[in-house]
Predict the structure.
Amino acid sequence: MHECCTVPVENIMENKHKPDGVCCLISEVTEAPPRADCPESGTISRKIQHRTIEHMVKPDLLDKILASQYYYCAASDCPIVYFSQDGTSKFTTEDLQVAVFAKDTGKDVYVCYCYDWTRSRLENEIRETGESTASKEVAEKVRASLCECDIKNPKGTCCLGDINAYVREAEDNLKAEK
Ligand SMILES: [Zn+2]
């Protein structure tokens, strides 16, 4: 069993299930530096696994993926999603099969790619019930080893930090409306 799946659901809900900040779904080990600067925006970016890129890019781009280490640029205003260590190979938001939460503010963009929580679904639930069940649902799936963030989420890791941040934002917005 993964180490992160043995902690209580409440801790997972708070995104505190990753020992040393590392998700157990990250198993690709390389010698490449842990961080690199995005060639477009200069954003300090962390390593991304090949299997994430392979599941994310449009099928006709699969043969463009190099054997090199890739990095994930999380900057909201930068079109580059993945870039290779030497900067020669890049995949932009246009090259992916899904919209990237960090780079696309659309309401229909997924926050949780494994269990279909979009911004609008989170907002609607909070509007209708006063709270969100998303982080609890996702935490229970994490605990049952049923998440596939490494191949479904463009950032390649757990969405719980994004869910919690967006739920807080949505709650504040709804309070401001009233
Ligand atoms: Zn960038």
Q: What stands out?
A: DSSP finds six helices and seven strands in the chain. Strands lie at 35-37, 44-48, 70-72, 80-84, 90-92, 110-112, 117-118. The radius of gyration is 17 Å.
